[in-house]
Amino acid sequence: MGNDARIGVLTLALRTVRARWTAFTGTFIALTLGVAMTAALGSALASAIGTEPVKAPERYPRAVSVVQPVPPPDPPDTPAPPPGLGPDVVARVSGLGPVVADRVFYAQPATGDGPVIGRAWPSARYAAYQITAGRAPSGDREIVVAGGGGARPGTSITVLTGGGPGTYRVAGVAHGPEPAIFFTGTEAARLSPRVDVLISAAPVPAVRDAAGTGALVAPGAGLRSGPDDDRLADAEVLLGIAGGVAGFVAVFVVASTFAFAVAQRRRELALLRAVGMTARQLRRMLLGEAAVLGVAASLPGCALGVAAAPALGAWLTARDLAPPGYEVTPSVWPLAVACGTGLTVALLGVWAASRRAGRIRPVEAMRESVLEHRVMTLARWLAGLAITGTALWMLVATALNSPQAATNRKQYVLVTLLLIGGMGLLAPAVVPPVARLVTWPLGRFGRPWTTIVRRGALAAARRTASTAAPVLITLGLTVGLLGATAMVKDARAAEERARHGGDLAVVPVGAPGLTRAAVARVEAVPGVRAVPRTPTTITVRQDGEPVTYAAEAVPPGGPLSALPVLAGTPSALTDDSIIVGREWERRVGDRVDVRLADGTNRSLKVAAVLRQGLADDIVHVTARNAGGAVLTESIDVQLLPGTDRAAALTALRAATRGLRADVAVPADLSAAAEGRQNRHARTGMLFILGVSLLYCAIVIAATLVMAAADRIREQGVLRLAGATSGQVLRVVAGESLLAVGVGTVLAAFASLASLGGLWAAIRAVTGEGPGVALPWPAVGGVFALCVMIAVSASLLPACAGLRTPAIDAAGARE
């Protein structure tokens, strides 16, 4: 093809877009909003990546060498205290010269105001603490308070510690990097025997050689007092998933609207082929139109994205999905990516339609322009079957081989998107049987307009599939993602409830845990059996590498809850044994070498092996093997036969009075834990859905406006045949409702297949099928919105078309 021919085809494409701009309205809107979503989410992601995380203050900036326990390579999800330094490490490092042992433990004023961390005063001079009033503690009943609570030198306050409440005299008030209550070294060792940090004046290389592989040695400068704020990392993950979903939605919808726009122009394209345009020229013209639209839509799309990005950042911060101070500022590369994405999506969207249009033979031009003889190409068949088959294979493979991974948000979001995409590609082939199913009730009326709606959908399967595509993705995402989130939430809640046995539970209130004094008082209440549950950690070597597991310390005999046992007897738990998960690959009676949370090495016998759960496997040991852990998470309380519930409840509340504890039923305890764990997940999923559903809702309206405007001639023919205005409007409304019905059936198949695979995976993990509680209010609301938008977007152009005389409307041409 010569240069002149190329220029001519491109000029024709430009003139076509300019002359037929109303036919491209829906595609232009879809592209503009797709670019806007990409620009806004990209700007938010770029700002999250470029923002410095909120770092915890330095704890030992003045120390030469600091020895800490080796952090677990993969920390467990369940909160548990970090492991301490082993006695062997402490002895070897102490051989280099004087050391200062720092201990970090629970200490909180009984009033609830002030710090919740206790530390040893000798370590304060390495952490840049300065006394602002009073003096350093000189006796074991004296403390220094840093960071609030209104403490004044010379006053006495009650301090809650792991061992219980104690009265201390405030010797001084200090200022430093974080709130803390400082005790003398001797008192700190009594309250928390575990050594958390060792400070040495020897150089780092010498200390590292002495500590060996059992500890981490580093200069004091730069070591933080706690983990950095990880909300930025969470925001990056959330924005990444939202961007992926938004990109899928944009490609899917834009491809459907382009295919619909090309299908509307079959008569025009057939005439071009008849007058001599080659297949290559036709494809080039359509691609040129797509390029023009892509460039034209990118500029307003970027402007909308830049305008919406700050509001998006404020929304994330207000919902605690991003840290305070996070702001979205425009940057160049997200806008460049958004523009490139808009152009690429436009070209990809029209590519398949242009190839189909290019295959029209000139001698078949007029016949092809009137009736659809083949609704799907071989390439579309292969692509649709491949994507659907891949999604179904992922469902089956995950349920059989790695069922726990199926509950990961990234996994079920991807599967749902693939199923929706596969159904979208196969939609033209599925439309006839689905349309017959959906319109079957209409056939019972025997009205002419119902027959027209039914036959029109069957004769124009591609058109029906294109108008149903936004509905498919809107309802499919709503049911699939919200249903999966609810199913995982309910399964985790059931698992959490199963962990809490007994009739009552004692829980901390305004404190990170229960003290030993609270445990002792509850155990002394007559008529009950108390089972404290204390979080700790257990480290074991697997494949030569140390792996740290969350563990739970309970009395001998195991917890009150019914554990998912694979082998052994949990009631056989003693100080010399351990209950492990299946992934440990141990048998009952095996000996396993473990390191406790305080660094002590023990060899314990496996008393029972548990089935894998949705959360990390909880290892069970006795309180003796808690490794210095001093705070109890909760206490399960079982009423002994003959014990009055009301009397026991009164006695338990009296026993825990003043210890920042209260009594609850296990169901309330698990519900509170579930609420804390899933609040962010639900908010994040609603954010991902909200962005996509708003986009789809607008595109539904734009697509159906295109469809209704294109049907003015057919409506004119109906009027000439004797149809009244009311009958014409009923046909228009029926066709739009049929498109919604087809999209709903396809969405139901895609989403229910995804939920079915997730249900099977959860059953494989827990041994019980989770409850399927679909979010009916959300589904009903989205469905009603789709119906309202579809009917309104179809009737408004139809009403406008009725003002045109029937003879003029029937003779209208493209």
Question: Key features?
Answer:
21 strands; elongated; 21 helices; single chain; six-stranded mixed sheet; 814 residues; 4 domains
Write the layout of secondary structure elements.
Blueprint: H1 3-19, H2 25-50, E1 65-69, H3 87-94, E2 99-102, E3 105-109, E4 117-120, E5 130-134, E6 142-146, E7 156-161, E8 164-175, E9 180-183, H4 185-191, E10 197-200, H5 204-211, E11 215-218, H6 231-264, H7 266-274, H8 279-318, H9 332-358, H10 365-370, H11 378-401, H12 409-443, H13 448-459, H14 461-499, E12 504-508, H15 516-523, E13 528-542, E14 545-554, E15 565-568, E16 577-581, E17 591-595, E18 601-610, E19 619-622, E20 634-639, H16 645-655, E21 661-664, H17 666-710, H18 712-720, H19 725-766, H20 776-801, H21 806-810
Parallel strand pairs: 4-9, 6-8, 14-19, 16-18
Antiparallel strand pairs: 1-10, 1-11, 2-10, 3-4, 3-7, 5-8, 6-9, 7-8, 12-20, 12-21, 13-14, 13-20, 15-18, 17-18
GO cellular component, one term: plasma membrane
Main location: membrane
Subcellular location: Cell membrane
Can you put this structure into words, describing what you see?
Helix content is 54%, strand content 15%. It has 814 residues and is of the alpha+beta class. It folds into 4 domains: 1-52 and 229-371, no CATH class; 65-218, no CATH class; 374-500 and 667-814, no CATH class; 504-664, no CATH class. A 6-stranded mixed barrel has the order 3-4-9-6-8-7. A 6-stranded mixed β-sheet has the order 19-14-13-20-12-21. α2 crosses α8 (279-318), α6 runs parallel beside α17 and α14 runs parallel beside α19 (725-766). The radius of gyration is 34 Å and the shape is elongated. The chain starts with a helix and ends with a helix. Mean pLDDT is 77; it is low at 75-79. InterPro entries: ABC3_permease_C, Macrolide_Exporter_MacB.
